[in-house]
Amino acid sequence: MKKKVSLPEINNTVPVFKKNRNFFRNLFAFSGPGSLVAVGYMDPGNWITSIQGGALYEYLLISVIFVSSIIAMFLQVLCIKLGIVTGMDLAQATNFLVKNKKINLCLWIIAELSIIATETAEIIGSTIALSLLFKIPIIFGTIITILDVLLLLELTKFGIRKIEAIVFTLIFTVFLIFCYEVFLANPDMKKIFLSLLPNKKILYSYSNGNDSSFFISLGIIGATIMPHNLYLHSSIVQSRRYIRENEKDIKESIKYAIFDSNIQLSFSLIINCLLLILGASLFFGKSPETVGKIFKIYYSLQNKNTIGEIASSTLSNLFAIALLISGQSASITGALSGQIVMEGFLNFRISIWKRKMITRFFAIIPVLFCIFFYGNNNDKIEKLLIYTQIFLSIALPVSIIPLLYITSSKKIMKNFVNKKYQIFFGFLIAFILIILNIRLILEIFFS
């Protein structure tokens, strides 16, 4: 079964189990991969879909974030099992199973396009943040983001454990910023809790004259359940030096890895809900021209005529800093994901900084095209951000179906094969996503 190790620079580098060590010390040793996955669930793509969802539909779409996050947790558990049990990542396992070069090439292209779409969202988020904080024109901010390749080069020298710690610190910083801003916004807690239950208005394309709730919902799904994270998690979970002597040891490893994943993804769930709540509390019911846009939210946060006495430059600058942190921290994992899919599907490897430059080159093209045709039109730039998330939602089943098939195979997973309810739930998710995506495509072409 076993092929080349996934990401050999980090594979099997972090020791975990020691005798007579308590639960929390073991959990600490396993903690880390979840943060690299979680940061992808709170990238700039999540910002625009969550904030716009709140600004246009108040708390209606909180249930979409909640359900999407539960689905994401479920899928990441399957990735954990795949990585620990087989010693392969999702791309390697798919390649091993399919054995057809043309199909693997197609799967690789779709995976690469997903990573490029994610990277485009991160470029836009970082560019907007630089523009807001330092008044840098969008075109120059876009070019400056190329320099984060140098940041990645420096981080790779630290080792995976330190990278995990840095990313978790960044996530926690963003979490604190939005807790503070939402606290000041004083949201309606009763409405928030009631909105955890899905509402039929979401599926009926309920619209207030702007993007339909259905359109935004699919954007949230694409931003919350990231295709590249399925490849990433199945690889980086193997950074731990597992004991695989018997089933009990493997079960213990899976248990701690799941704890790590669910704890970290809970942070991203809360952050995405906070973003939507902030958009709803401050901007719902306002003029459509002034809500749901990152630039306008930044300036509104310092405008007392818009949000009242809580407005200040501190609030708006904290918002922009959090956006920059989000874009840069999510960018770290994009290069790793690209390396994983290239090695897994094509058995081809290049240095990680070259890999990052190639992805960044293709990701920057849509942004430059947008600037070329529309100039410094902030609304068009942010619209491009939403479309990247819609594409991720459309591409998602292509990653989910192989993951479900492989982890449901007794031959591959042995006694760790998916339970019947997991198989049913997983394929139900894939089926619903496919139906929703077909509906979205028809809506785009015929509306």
Name of the top-level CATH class: Mainly Alpha
Helix/strand-derived category reads mainly alpha
- Provide the succession of SSEs: EHHHHHHHHHHHHHEHHHHHHHH
CATH topology-level name: Hydantoin permease
CATH architecture group name: Orthogonal Bundle
- What average pLDDT do the residues reach? 83
Q: What is the number of independent domains?
A: 1
Report the sheet with the most strands, covering strand number, pairing sense and barrel closure: 2 strands, parallel
Q: Please state roughly what percent of the residues sit in beta strands, choosing from under 5%, 5-15%, 15-25%, 25-35%, 35-45% or over 45%.
A: under 5%
The coarse overall form would be: globular
- C-alpha-based Rg, rounded: 21 Å
Helix content: over 70%
Termini separation: 49 Å
Please state how the strands of the largest beta sheet are arranged side by side: 1-2
Task: Give unreliable regions as ranges.
Answer: none
**Count of DSSP strands:** 2
Would you identify the CATH H-level superfamily?
Hydantoin permease
- Counting DSSP H or I runs of 4 or more residues, the number of helices is 21
